[in-house]
## 1
Amino acid sequence: MVGTEHVEMIPVAKKEIWSAEVNGRPVEVLAPSNAILLDVLRDKVGTLGVKRGCDLGTCGCCSVLIDGTPRLSCLCLAGQVEGSSIITVEGLSEGAHLAPIQSCFAEYGGSQCGFCTPGFLVTAQALLNENNNPSDKEVANAIEGNLCRCTGYQQIVESIQAAAAIHRGEVEPAAPASDPHPDPHPTGPEEPQMPPGHAR
Amino acid sequence: MSGGYRQQPGSPGKVTRKDGKRVAGKQAFPPPGSGGSKPTMAPRDLDFIPELVGGREAQPAGAHVHDRARTGTSVGKPTALVDSNAKVTGQAWYGDDVRLANEVIGKILRSPHHYARIKSIDTSKVEALPGVLAVATGADSPHQFGVLPVTKDEHAMAVDKVRHVGDLVASVAAVDEATAMAALNLFEVEYEVLEPVFDPKKGLEDVDEPIHWRGKYHLARTNVQKRVFQEFGDRSLVQKPLASSHGKWKMAGVHHGFTEPHAVVAHWGPNGRLQLYTPQQVPHYTHRALATVLDVPMHQINVIRTFVGGGFGGKSDPFPHEMCAAILSRKAGRPVRITFDREEVYWINRGRHPSHIEVKMTADDDARISGFDIDALIDGGGFASFGHVTSYYNGVLATAPYELGSFHYTGARVWTNKPASGAMRGHGAVNTRCAVEVGLDEMADQMKVDPMDLRLANLLPPHSRTISGFRITSNGMREALEKVREGSQWDTKFRQMPLGKGIGIGCGFFISGSGLPIHWDPNRFPHATVHIQVDMDGGVTVHTGAADIGQGSTTAIAQVVSEVLALPLEMIHVKCHESDTSPVDLGSYSSRVTFMNANAAIRAALEIREQLLKAAWEILGYHPNNLVLNDRRIYYKHDPAIGTSYLKALHKAQEDKGALIASGAYRSPPMGGVHKGAAAGLAPAYSFSAYVAEVDVDVETGMIKCTKVWAAHDCGKALNPLAVKGQIIGSCHMGLGQVLSEKMVYGRTGHLQNPNLLDYKIPSVHEMPHVEPIIVESCDPEGPFGAKEAGEGPLLPILPAVVNAVYDAIGIRLRDLPLTPDVVFKGIEKGMKAAGVDDPLDLAPPRVEHGELQPLLVKRAAEHKIRDQARQRSEDTSPYVNGVLFGFDPNIPLEDQVEGWRMATEPDPEQLAALGLAGKAWLKKEQRHMGGDE
């Protein structure tokens, strides 16, 4: 945006109804025919979890799953994916139950500032959908298009491997944090259980 | 429980309807204050209670003042960030995610010229464009601002002059982005182009039109913004060195490369108050600057810090676009959102200064470091930003961890017509540290000793003073060095690996919180304040202004409160986004947050805890000294069955006064000398680190791959080991980028060539080596539970470790960062010529045979280790100042000990002839000494 001469915007494109299935919900919005998918998702559909980092397809923050394949929504015209099934970071969890990849990113430090996290999550989810026992090399290959400036990737790879273990059924998934009280205990610590062997 | 308020927890099971529905008023909800889903009291976690207060946590460094506040609840345990669930579900709201009803879009017109005077701006066509709601230019923002009160040199939009390509000229708000973009084309600006300066060396020369004018304090007619001279110690020691190193370095500017571009939303509400949403590390400075620029009192502004998508120092200035959004919103009467594209992020910059650094150092016959002579010329770009401080940090942060015979520093920061440099992770210390550590390596080679032992035999002990008067408290440098030496199997690898494979060492030293608050006298206001409020529900609300930028400061504060009150982390709610509700806090910079805010939080929590214990005393009849807090319960220490719940005690304490409220503050102790610049680099504690890096160098292409890093960092006490490890690994990533690939490339015409993430090479997952984070805990006496910083210091050692490893691999010293393949191969070609070989594969990697000094160093290091251990545990509380190694008596003032000992902040007339590059700034006079009186 530097310089006296700015490139004229493309002549106003005709607005059309754009429809797709976003996170399992059918969506119909009015968008210009040349709209970028990222803009449509953020500004029209309201899935603000899809992040804009670079506009050039270099950072991977805007990754979404289109019919199961991770793609960069900043390099994708909305019209190209008309009618597809799109999954954003908001669509990974099942209600209050976080997807294993989400809870593992939280638990293993895969997310620091969190801005690149949505992109990593959907990319990693796509990997785990196909391969629940990836090697570190395969994980690295899957996330090579995503930049993270905080973590140095190591804890991200650890998080993905931990999630893979849950996908393989080796580890129990964590209880959802928003589940209020899976084991309601009316007495609470008013009458705590004493250490074993302790005389009341 | 006595009369008054009584909450009914209800008792399901007793009264149930036949149809299974719950009876009104008897819902099954966990009793308030019970912590929700965890009905049973967790056993006391002795593994996380210090051994000196009855637990099992080892305390090699001795007792700590906060030991009695430990309850084994959350400090020291790997903890997921408290806001991580918001981040992994896409619900965290960053700058551009703030969408207010009726918002309009702001865009900024930027300068196409490096340096020009604005003769006129015609906005009539812009205003006529349908859809444009507000237009603003420099005329709307005459007031100057800046992050440091001494160097306020920025305007919201250019007044009179533009100072770099991309400088803000005007701004416009329109109904949508397309209209705003179209409006930018309609500004008619007339410029008078001026002669730009790009080369910092040229910045030292007199010009017709300096980029800024400081009146009588301006240095001649140069572009020097700040010059520094510091000399300490006995310069005669450097006369006959046994070994010496002289390196001239050229370090490219680097950018923070955070993933979230700047974004801001400003909204003048119907009551005439401004709400500003911005991802800021220093919301309070923005708050101050807004008040100045907009000419409204601070209390009419509410700065709301959104989630911050990475900062690293790049979001720690009040920014002109924030002012623009506010001005536009004031005019348009609607919320204005300005979001940068990636290119604009590079125009605002504030990255690490491009630097020319020259380091001379000497060692005497006993392999003691007799002198450091550092000269740093740093390229500040168009504005001051944090540069005043950076100019000092480039020198003074090299005064430790080694004991020095003398120290000489000249530094200068110049304005050039480029985007402004500023603070970036490891502020000011990174480049010089790299030069110094590589110099030590070179001297070790000359003396035929192991560089590891050279360092170990020259360290300052804990509880000592550096040559410039910094007070060092805890010091884990020795342990860090020993741990990486052992972990990396240094002794079997160093100088023994084949050509192309190398191993190198680097150390680091960094401040843990700047000792002086920028805006006020530390004796009048504290550094940090934290408020805690506990109401009937038992939840603990913590108000702090600490800006979490992803490092986990919110989590750290929640952890310490949870620890002191023995409550699960879920019961602690940290409110830290709004300036309306949080106490004033300086923000996240200089690695101050954990140290200062957690200290303040502990103080506030202890006050609450005292009230709870007093209430429990009334209920149980046992004195608080005999009561134990553990997991939502307070009980008699000899019989856990005699006790009361947290909630009962809380309600007892709340009788007659309602919610419990406490405020805690932190203030740094009085420190430092009286010389000019003595405050720069002062900190209540310092962090230390040592890294060993292994690299593969392809001698035929010059490609470097770092394969493994052992990273030991002394963070005092890891409150959250998961976050500390994340910081260490992340620092390695950022440092590796600077040393191997990242560079802001300015072309011959002064244009920034790579303002995007495609050409600005941030390491991807494939470039990252495996990092072995090693946490060293020296337990700082003043840190919260012993903690010090872990965010910036860990970046420092990775640069010299890699550069030294490259020398170990190919035998060539490279001093031009980043070490991109072209730089390395040029070095290899030179090395081939010197060695007289035609094939790079015939180069000989360096080898070392230890000389007679080596056993002497090993012996001295062993003696010092015993000395350090005694001092760490405070068994030896005698004073220790830099210079004892050279035979000084710590009880006598340094200047009285040796004839030649001096402390100077200005050069002697005879020194003027022999100054380095940046030192040349001292050949100029300020206007007030030249008869100029402007």
Note: Chain A touches chain B through 80 residues (CB under 8 Å).
## 2
Amino acid sequence: MTKGIYHPKSPYTPQECEAILMAMEALLDGTATEEQRTFIEKKLEECPYCFEQWQIEKTLRQLLKDYRNKVRVPSALKKAILERIQIECRKEDLENSTKD
Amino acid sequence: METKLSELLPHLSSLYYFALQLTGDEEEAKDLVQEAYLKAMRFIHQYQEGTNAKAWLFTILKNQFINRYRQKQRQGASENLDQILSQLDGRLSVAPVVEQDHQEVKEAIEKALMQLSPQARAIIILADMEGFSYQEIAKILDIPIGTVRSRLHRARNQLRKYLIPIATRLGYKV
């Protein structure tokens, strides 16, 4: 049993817990089958530890998303990109005009 | 042209963060992102408005990175991103500047990510931070979809070990 993931009082075996966790991931990833969806819905009603794990899964994802959303891009980067694109466009215009 | 550029620019921080993870160097990451945007604008006629601009940009960034890597290694070997990641030094990860009000959360996440291999870290970033589908991740990393699923599960198991205590303690509710 992996420490910290599965509750020691859980009525399920580690293998069952693993399968439940994988189905939860599929559901949160939007890849769950109809079967997996009903399976999880049932577990969330019957097993308080599954319910707790479900909350934790959502929290972890939110923590990671929040972290990434707060990454600051160096201020000069956007400016440099826009400048280089402008230079490229001008070059292209020039090439096109000489072609004509 | 203007509308198309305005569709691409909102993904700048996603690209920058991923580039930072690939290169492990701020200057190199900036160069890589610049090149990717420049290339995207050069091929903008191939881009269909409304399609997934972010996935397209990530693919361009990936290809630029692979090219750079090959040049550095001076090998003509046809490595894909997954193979290159497996050769990277795990300690390469660079923590970006993050406006995080909760220093404890920031440190816990960075520490947890550092424990992952570059391959595991990449898959967590693509799936859980950027929200790409398995199919999109498979394309970016050049691995089968089944491998995406199993690796993601393993990487998340590792992350859980490090992050569940802080998530539970802080009572971070969604």
Note: Chain B has nine helices and no strands.
